[in-house]
Amino acid sequence: MDLAAAAVFIFSLLLTASDSAPSLKSRNWDIYSYHMNSTVTSRYAVTVITSRVTNTRDDSNEIDFHVKIPKAAFISKFRMTIDGQTYDGVVKQKEEAQQQYSQAVSRGQSAGLVSSVGRTLEDFKTSVTIAAHSKVTFELTYEELLRRRLGKYELLINAQPGQIVKDFKINVNIYEQPGINFLEVKGSLGEKDLANAITTTRADNQAWVNFYPTHGQQMDCDGCGETGLKGDLKILYDVYRPLSQGDVMEHGGYFAHFFAPANLGRIPKNVVFIIDQSGSMHGKKIAQTREALLKILDDLAEDDYFGLIVFNSQVSPWKHKLLQATQTNLDMAKQFVKGITDGGATNINEAVLKGVEMIQQHPRNGSASILILLTDGDPTSGEINQGKIQSNVREAIGKNFPLYCLGFGFDVNFEFLQKMAQENSGVARRIYEDSDAALQLKGFYEEVATPLLTSVQMSYTGATNLTQTIFSHYYNGSEIVVAGKILDNNIDGFNTDVVAISKHDTVKYSDIKATQAGQLPAVMSGFENFLQRLWACLTVKQLLEKELTLTGEEKEAVKKEALDLSLKYSFVTPLTSMVVTKPEGEDSQVADKPKEGEKPAIHSTMMLPSQPTSSRKRAKSMPRSHSTSSGRSRGFMPGLSGMAFLDSLSAAPPVMYHRSDRHRSIGQGRILHDAVEDYGNLPATIIPARMPVRFLMAAEGQSLPLCFDIPAGHIVKLLQDPASGFSMNGQLMSEGGNGFQKIIIRVNADKYIQFDTNWITIKDGLLMQSVTWTDSDHTSDSMIVIIRDSEADITVENIRVVILLHLQDGKRFLWPAVRKRPSEHEVPGIMGKLPVAYEEVKPSKLRIQGVEVDASSDSAGDYNIKAVPRVKCQLVDLKSALQGELSDFTVHQL
Ligand SMILES: *[C@@H]1O[C@H](CO)[C@@H](O)[C@H](O)[C@H]1NC(C)=O
Ligand SMILES: *[C@@H]1O[C@H](CO)[C@@H](O)[C@H](O)[C@H]1NC(C)=O
Ligand SMILES: *[C@@H]1O[C@H](CO)[C@@H](O)[C@H](O)[C@H]1NC(C)=O
């Protein structure tokens, strides 16, 4: 690269880094009013977000509407109003909506799709183009049934309008007929100075929370500024329960029974913890698991009995039977827990069956048995057929007690755990890999720590279309909700009975009558059918869970029922999508509900690279800064790399590697040797290389760069900046071939970005979200992430890296391109190397650092550039290129 070109290139980099802050973009419009109004009636929360925006530019402009809503909620309405004209989203069957979407894509239109999952929130994002100085109103409604957890209901409201808003209001109105006995406001929007913006008002059965931050408060709060407020408001409350039998509310021909008796004794537990200790639990996960178990053991009561099983391919119970939670036994168990280490495969089948056996060998009158499985991966040893494991476990448990499944991290097959829990009267929960994982585990345990009733059966006369009525356990702090339709709207013919087993005997609540919700307060107008909607929402949730465990015709029937209800009540559920139609000349968009634990199919969420329409549109509405790297750089940056394998690039059809090619490629004596030698140190999960990955490396004062191969599957150090703590590691494709399957950039202890070919997971302090490779932005104090058309552009302080998602021969892979190094000196990592100087001493011989090495003329694709130009290079062995051993550049953990 000649000097002039380099200078121009770096200049353009600086430009890009500085003008890419999102605040610039949002200055193109003014949000003059932003209201979030939530109404909660008998635990059913309906939230409406209304954002009124003016285009402040002198030409037409694309305006974004981007909000985050609780995962448990269903979107039920979306409307845009422009010049008095309304555009309503329409909920359709998913396939039908998808079809519309694919047609748009195949016409080259950008029918952007809205879906991504974070820990508690999911995104809704759309945009519309409006004329100079005109106005648009966005209105989004979502609904949810608040669940009682550890004695409280929680309403979560997330606000981040992206700018300071003149008229910013959050209004919450709660109406609970039995009366509100406890109310608390938490969350980052309720902290410090902002707490002054909150007013709370309470009457006996109503409460109001208003949050009206001033201009100054929106500007000066922690982490605020030009981009305004950003955070959560959490409203926690509980209701009075004068009657143990619970409250039965009636309204509009529907009823809901809220059952949460508290004046009962604790039932002693028989609990078995089944803990995955396979190799993938290595590091933090196993440490957090130990920490949580130690705390949980401390919380067991003396009349509880407990068992501990750790497993990898071997199943190792601490003791072969349940022991009483005496201090001596607990102390011994803690010693055992402290010694739990990781390694090996995952034999879920045998481990769970052993747990069931231990519980069955310990029958005890007046006790509640509970099985808790914690795993972070798929079954890989013993019985690995998931259907077979499910049926084994189902038969063994025989509906006698619940199995709870905790899935640790994102590598678990969460659906498998959901099915298994669902079939055995339990629930599955995700434990997020995070600094608070031990707390999450402990929190889950607390929810099931105090059983008050077992075998709860609720029966209703004079009612139909009931939701679930049989529950294996009822725990202190939770609530059982049953809803249904009252037959012939005859409230006199309606009553209910509850029968359950408590600590000492059978308890019965008979002939419970319904209370009519009566006259709703004025603010509830428009929510007259809230109990019907509550019923529909709960029914759809339960049908979706049930559907998981069914097959064949039964499954289809349940699915159809859930779909029909979703369509009728206009809920965006995993079976439906909302089609958002826009004014003439703009494309429709489709909003989906992502399923927990399921990554949406890639075809529906990923824009194909270089869509002509979308890039044209972008060019109009956004400064050029947002197109990241493609085609701008000529050649490659010093010390950086691109790769491709042999002639695979010029071969258009899917590449078949012939034996002879392979032989030629890794036949360079020492490289092969390296590869073989190194597998000894690798974790067992890495499959030995079939094809190496080729890296390019700039050479000083030479027209031909060097290139070298690294065997597939390795996890390599890419770039580190010891000064700031920045690091980037990548895992090469395990089946060989092109680039990387995963890359992680760590900014500091609680900030990182992880990339795979489907998802980009951004962890920033308490926030953790996964987004797809379509458009999205994320900005915080020290990090800017801009994702456009299969490129993610990351700026951290003075370092800038672009991760490219390439698609070649039907395979997706990642490639990291370092656009700005942390230092002009050499830093650790393959991409931290400076250009190497070499001399050609004779054909096929180079001198590098005074040593003569073998070389051959070869070529590689430059994967730093989207178009992947083919580059000639001098192929040498890795040691000569990197001036070190492969092991200097590999790590065991991403
Ligand atoms: C939200 O609620 C407040 C207070 O009840 C009301 O004044 C305001 O008009 C509502 N906003 C919208 C957009 O409905
Ligand atoms: C159930 O929880 C409440 C508070 O949430 C507590 O006062 C009560 O003692 C608990 N009951 C038992 C049996 O632990
Ligand atoms: C459990 O209770 C049943 C009846 O309630 C009784 O017949 C049985 O003997 C009891 N078993 C034990 C082990 O106490």
Describe the structure.
This protein has 894 residues and is an alpha+beta fold. The chain has three domains: 25-239 and 578-585, Sandwich (Immunoglobulin-like), CATH 2.60.40; 273-292 and 321-440, von Willebrand factor, type A domain (Rossmann fold, 3-Layer(aba) Sandwich); 615-889, no CATH class. An eight-stranded mixed β-sheet has the order 5-4-10-2-1-12-15-14. Helix 5 (284-299) runs antiparallel to helix 6 and helix 11 (530-549) runs antiparallel to helix 12. The chain binds 2-acetamido-2-deoxy-beta-D-glucopyranose (3 copies). One 2-acetamido-2-deoxy-beta-D-glucopyranose (NAG) binds next to loops. Residues 151, 262, 265-266, 450, 476-477 line the site of one 2-acetamido-2-deoxy-beta-D-glucopyranose.
Would you spell out the secondary-structure blueprint of this structure?
Elements (H helix, E strand, L loop, with lengths): L2 H16 L3 H5 L2 E13 L2 E12 L5 E10 L3 E9 L2 E4 L1 E4 H13 L6 E2 L2 E2 L2 E10 L4 E11 L7 E7 L7 E9 L4 E7 L11 E5 L3 E6 L3 H6 L10 E9 L7 E5 L2 E6 L9 E8 L7 H16 L5 E7 L3 E3 L5 E2 L2 H12 L9 H13 L7 E8 L10 H12 L5 E6 L5 H10 L4 E4 L5 H12 L2 E11 L1 E2 L5 E6 L4 E7 L8 E7 L4 E7 L2 E2 L13 H20 L2 H18 L6 E5 L8 E4 L9 H4 L6 H10 L37 H8 L3 H9 L14 E5 L1 E2 L5 E5 L4 E7 L4 E7 L7 E9 L2 E6 L3 E5 L2 E5 L4 E5 L2 E6 L2 E6 L2 E10 L2 E10 L15 E7 L2 E4 L2 E4 L1 E6 L8 E6 L2 H5 L7 E2 L3
Parallel strand pairs: 1-12, 7-34, 17-32, 19-20, 19-23, 23-24, 24-25, 36-49, 37-53
Antiparallel strand pairs: 1-2, 2-10, 3-9, 4-5, 4-10, 6-33, 8-43, 11-16, 12-15, 13-16, 14-15, 17-18, 18-29, 20-21, 20-22, 26-28, 26-30, 27-29, 30-31, 33-34, 35-37, 38-39, 38-54, 39-40, 40-41, 41-42, 42-43, 44-45, 45-46, 46-47, 47-48, 49-50, 50-51, 52-53
Helix pairs in contact: 5-6, 5-10, 7-8, 8-9, 9-11, 11-12
The chain binds 2-acetamido-2-deoxy-beta-D-glucopyranose (NAG) (3 copies).
